[in-house]
Fold each of these.
Amino acid sequence: MRTYQIDENGYYGEFGGAYIPEILHRCVETLRENYLSILEDDSFRREYGRLLKDYVGRPSPLYFARRLSGHYGCKIYLKREDLNHTGAHKINNALGQALLAQRMGKTRIIAETGAGQHGVATATACALLGLECVVYMGKTDVERQHINVQKMEMLGARVVPVTSGNMTLKDATNEAIRDWCCHPADTYYIIGSTVGPHPYPDMVAKLQSIISKEIREQLKEHEGRDYPDYLIACVGGGSNAAGTIYHYLDDSRVKIVLAEAGGLGVLSGKTAATIQLGKKGIIHGARTYVIQNEDGQIEEPYSISAGLDYPGIGPMHANLAATHRAQVIAVNDDEALEAAFLLTRIEGIIPALESSHALGVLPKIQFRPEDIVVLTVSGRGDKDMETYIKAMNQ
Ligand SMILES: *Cc1c(COP(=O)(O)O)cnc(C)c1O
């Protein structure tokens, strides 16, 4: 049978792999050799499971959105990752990797962050487990996302502003990789999404797969069957989407719809629509689609949502798009905002801007009344209030 899961060489179809500098080879190889046995180890699973329940607050509810369903003429369930500790799905991954790092004997954690959400999740996990934490963040982002910088510092992390390049996520990632090269013995690099060299995309997908595991059980309770007709999630690097679809990847009864950030429009030059515009290339150690110019230089992406403006996409998702297993829809800034206001007004849930992109595909699909749709609300909108208020006053 055809599978959309990773193969034994670390590829999803022609995407993935580990294209890394020689000096990182040992670190990545050690991780590759150990991650599966640690993730499957009984005592790891017990500790991780206990923390997901008592600390993160899982299982997150699968909420039947009655009024939203009425609006779109189908049955819509929202998977409420916004209710997790720290306000999004990212804690599932950060906590899992921090525990894994501890089991590999590492005492120092590094991470990259763009908007600061992954930095806060990582700093939180490190505070909980008593690990040293250094977070690399572009200087531009440090200035734009001041509250998250203060949160990380309050949690005990050291935030290092990166002044190379455009001083944003891509540059912070390069700096984190450089740090890892210099401190291979005691340091572990927690990547925040299903990106980077193998085994990261698979490891992050497995840590987030708690989402689809819960969806299966919760749908069974609500509907008497354990699969939906549609799964919908937004894609930056791809981790909340990977978690949402993980247990359904090879289930052809389930349609997968991914929302990427159209920005001001796919052809406007200000966009993060990697699948529509990207060409095959290599970014941060993986072969995938990348937004790049004719010389292969990576172009700066744009989206109203800081969590979606990554110039690449996870290799799993690149393969799902290339093989047409998933339908990928670009949702522009204004469409995401409209979807956010609708959800807020008729369900009383203020979503993160990233999640609003997932909601923004709902008016673009022709549903039948009996269709069961599960849409992941990846995070809450507190961090985006300034943007929402500005849009409201326009
Ligand atoms: C970071 C973030 C995303 C995008 O990251 P993925 O790895 O694609 O999930 C989406 N939603 C929220 C709330 C985020 O913080």
Amino acid sequence: MRLYSPFFTFLLTFAWSLILLANCEEQQIPEEKLLVLTVATKNTDGFRRFLRSAKHFNYTVKVLGRDQKWNGGDYMSAPGGGQKVRLLKTALEEMKNDDQIILFIDSYDVVFASGPKELLKKFRQAKHKVVFSSESLIWPDRHLEDKYPHVREGNRFLNSGGFVGQLSNIKEMLVNWTGKDDDSDQLFFTKIYTDPAKRKSINITLDSRCRLFQNLFGSLDDVVLKFEDGRVRARNVLYDTLPVIIHGNGPTKLQINYLGNYIPNTWTFEKGCTMCHEDLLPLSALKQESEYPLVLIGVFILQPTPFVTVFFERLLKLQYPKDRIKLFIYNKEAHHEKHVTSFLMDHESLYREAKVIGPEEVDEAEARNLAFDTCRKDKDCSYFFNIDAEVVLKNENTLKILIEQNLPVVAPMVTRVGRLWTNFWGALSEEGYYARSEDYVDIVQRQRVGVWNVPYVSSVFLLKASLLQSELDDYDLFDSANLDPDMAFCQHIRNTGVFMYVTNMEIFGRILSTDNYQTGHLHNDLWQIFENPMDWEERYIHENYSHIMKDKLIETPCPDVYWFPVFSDIACKHIVEEMENFGQWSGGGNKDTRIQGGYENVPTIDIHMTQINYKDEWQKFLQEYITPITEKMYPGYYTRAQFELAFVVRYRPDEQPYLRPHHDASTFTINIALNEVGLDYQGGGCRFLRYNCSIQAPRKGWALMHPGRLTHYHEGLPTTAGTRYIAVSFVDP
Ligand SMILES: *[C@@H]1O[C@H](CO)[C@@H](O)[C@H](O)[C@H]1NC(C)=O
Ligand SMILES: *[C@@H]1O[C@H](CO)[C@@H](O)[C@H](O)[C@H]1NC(C)=O
Ligand SMILES: *[C@@H]1O[C@H](CO)[C@@H](O)[C@H](O)[C@H]1NC(C)=O
Ligand SMILES: *[C@@H]1O[C@H](CO)[C@@H](O)[C@H](O)[C@H]1NC(C)=O
Ligand SMILES: *[C@@H]1O[C@H](CO)[C@@H](O)[C@H](O)[C@H]1NC(C)=O
């Protein structure tokens, strides 16, 4: 005989569930009963991060020890922390409501990942009056290992960085504390826990499976970010739990910084960066420019660097009242002295002050120390803005944006074009060098946009001067026995617990390659077409070149002759000056040892590109900027822009004023005017005899493109005054 029918079983189960459910409701601990206590003698960046996460979840937090002197030892190394126990004990003595729940937690390296409700639920489920956080490593006394009870699953050892419990039980636990401030709190609690009688009477357990507390030390590989509907948590994949509190204990400060970039809602897929819009310092609120904070800009030229003149042009364009800027320029390269001098000669008076330090005086580290110290000692100095000469700051508002972001140290992200190379590191290797964080590529490519707490920034960053009076008051921040100055500096900052950020909220600019930069020429930047093509283009290609197709800027002055802008004024000027500086103009005779056969049929006064070692660069230029137009205008013809002859010609009335009619030894010819008719010379131009068609008003920087043989028999018209320069290339001879 069957006692129950399946249906009856179902009913029974259902009824039980209801009873259990009701029970749960009954036992739920009201959130008002929870009080978070933490000790923070200093208002560190980590502490502010903790408070932010607590506020996000509406935790009630009481801070102990504010502004007291910390005697509890160095949290990075030796045991200590006794001061925390003393402060807690005193605070609890005043509290009378015995069924209050106390969460005692570190704060400099802690973030909440969830709210009071979940915390209390998990506490209740632990079925003990006091629950300590756990870890897999025993500390500080390994000899106590045998005394620890075994656990079925999870961490076996106690960590005192976080515990939650009923007030009366915690009071009982603290009753015998008489330790010194630098005694180990962890050892104190460990001894209570490992005493079976005390463990039982106080009713203590460990959160072995990290349901409440995740200590990161020893568990880094087990913790991953978990993005879920507008919030971010950490998941412990070993125990499949979602801890409520994340603690970067011991040497895991950088990992908590990384996790804190997301948890609990710092950055989410749904909302992006939430902290980026908090605590801003809007400069627009200032009524007058004279109220702008004073900034010391440290400019560092540390190696031969391309486009230094452009760097100074940009510095000048930086949007900020110059009267509120002091300049500190360190130049290590004799080669760049002329650039610094010329910038200061023209613009020094605009700035509040300018100071130049040369290499004879100090080395890089000392120069950087000195620059910081200049700001440190200047009571008006509010910010130090560091910018190395290889930084191309395209965003003229960078300085304002960084100030408004209101962070201790913040770098605008700058990247090397087409590379993953930037001025920040997302993580640090064990040896203290570069390591790639999981989000590095997304940040570099701006798939994730925000403000990121990172272990290393360089080249360009803003620092609050107040730090130089406090955490960073050591003079020799850039000195180290074994690290480069940039790394020494970042290590120093990390050790003080100051947060460094990089922002990719906007596009700020890029960073030049200084590799292979030769300084043997007059205008070395002309040679940068391979190493820094984007900067080369911005400097040397005509501003309207990029839209000549769209805006139909290509003219046809004579049949099959095309005319379009290609070089900037600066390009023309630099090429001419480079040639004049080289100075070995050919004699204009028929005998020419520079060419094959040694005989020139139609000689000009010229210098070949090969003579100034510019062949490869010139060919690259033709390929990049001429080829697309050739193929457009002469459809069906494909060129790799090969040439044997490319040169700059000089026409002068008293030297060689014109060139008699001839064919070029080319499939097509490129003839670029390098200076300005009416201004630099009179006359000049080019005539195509077959069509009786002349171009008599050549335009500086514009290229003429025409077929070389057969149809386009042509002559150079006489230059009647001044000097005319053209760059001629016989393409595909
Ligand atoms: C926190 O409290 C505020 C106001 O009392 C409320 O609007 C908000 O939803 C609360 N947040 C959470 C996470 O409970
Ligand atoms: C510990 O406290 C829980 C209630 O929180 C209770 O059920 C349990 O029996 C206690 N354990 C001991 C050993 O007293
Ligand atoms: C505190 O000291 C008393 C007296 O030695 C002892 O009986 C008690 O167990 C101690 N309590 C704790 C929590 O250590
Ligand atoms: C580029 O084109 C614009 C519009 O036609 C013109 O105003 C400007 O002067 C051109 N730039 C140069 C350098 O010629
Ligand atoms: C060539 O053109 C010029 C003016 O453009 C004109 O004066 C001359 O007569 C022309 N010559 C021939 C041979 O057509």
Amino acid sequence: MKPAHKLLFVLCPMLVLGFIYYSSGKLHLHVWGQKPHKDVEPTVKVSKVTSVSVKTTKTKEPVVEGPVSVGRIVGSVFDNQGFLLNLDTRLPPELVYKYGNLSEGACKPGYAAAKMSAIYPKYEQISLLTVNTNFKLLRVFVSSLCSFLLSLSTERIIDVILSATKNYGLGPDLDSLSCKRCIIVGNGGILSNKSLGSRIDDYDVVIRLNEAPVSGYTRDVGTKTTLRITYPEGAIQKTESYEKDSLFVFSAFKPLDFKWLRQMVFKEKLQGTEGFWKSVAHSVPRQPSEIRILNPYFIQEAAFQFIGLPQNNGLMGKGNIPTLGTVAITMALHNCDEVAVAGFGYDMNTPHAPLHYYETVKMSAIKESWTHNISKEKEFLRKLVKTNIITDLTNGI
Ligand SMILES: *[C@@H]1O[C@H](CO)[C@@H](O)[C@H](O)[C@H]1NC(C)=O
Ligand SMILES: *[C@@H]1O[C@H](CO)[C@@H](O)[C@H](O)[C@H]1NC(C)=O
Ligand SMILES: *[C@@H]1O[C@H](CO)[C@@H](O)[C@H](O)[C@H]1NC(C)=O
């Protein structure tokens, strides 16, 4: 090992720890939405053990020391990821009090975050939707973990991109809503022929992924697109297929992705495309002010905290990349008061059913993925559905 590599090897864990320390104090900046979430301090009643309560704080330190270790003798009340083992749909008493007086069907402020804290005491309320100038370096660092150190130029590229895009939120109308309902529309064939379009359009924020089309499918998938979250290989290639007024939210999984984005933002001729795993769009018909960089924290949190994918010494790949759908859900949990999904889940018992709502490719075409771990991911999503943290309109999860 060269001395320089050795140094990086030592520096990496130190920076990660440094980040965690730093983040515990600094990450609560609110950009999307003026209204900070109320600090929720749920009391987790552990019925199997003597009634033990765990107070949630906003620090990164696990707060399960002390009384709970008594419970470990009987059997832990949390799973490996830190979720309560005993999940149910009931609201903790303090939330019953908080939401009990709302009329049926009214949007419940802070609901997703509050319920999440109730089943996952380590939950941190971070609501920085996109990278902004103050926080970009740390975010990118977290995203690509230590590979970032080898590509400091990425940070310069982000500076250049942010100097052109300048905006970080959803726009004044949505940012000022006191209670936001969001839906993430997955690309699954399960959306076909369910006529959910008008229900989807009722949400304040409609999030679509990659190249999922709207035109021609509006009866089933709705007409509205607030955010389209995309990585380079998944971006719509035909410029005429972009809807009119959505925000283009860019999710980076590797440093090369930022180089592509810079060329899109500045409408440059595309070059340097070796390294993408399929062909990528040559232009994105969006003004810089309509482009955002998704906070990479959500990728990291989804992969390592919620799903429990292997860290692979800080390298992305080999089954530790979360799917974009789960990254979008993770982002929405932090940024929306209520979260719903539609078009998620693969049903392997129906091999002839269509995989996507917009293609004839069949379910049976799906291969064992080496980048994702679909079954582990599903375990996480099921926890969210089981506890009503997310509503699954197509019941595929
Ligand atoms: C709900 O209504 C009850 C009875 O009117 C009242 O005591 C309580 O404070 C209300 N809760 C909230 C959160 O407003
Ligand atoms: C949806 O309906 C169309 C027209 O009736 C039909 O051709 C198609 O197979 C249906 N798709 C699914 C997934 O059921
Ligand atoms: C997914 O995770 C499970 C449990 O950790 C493991 O056994 C399996 O090999 C993983 N699959 C992939 C594709 O990485």
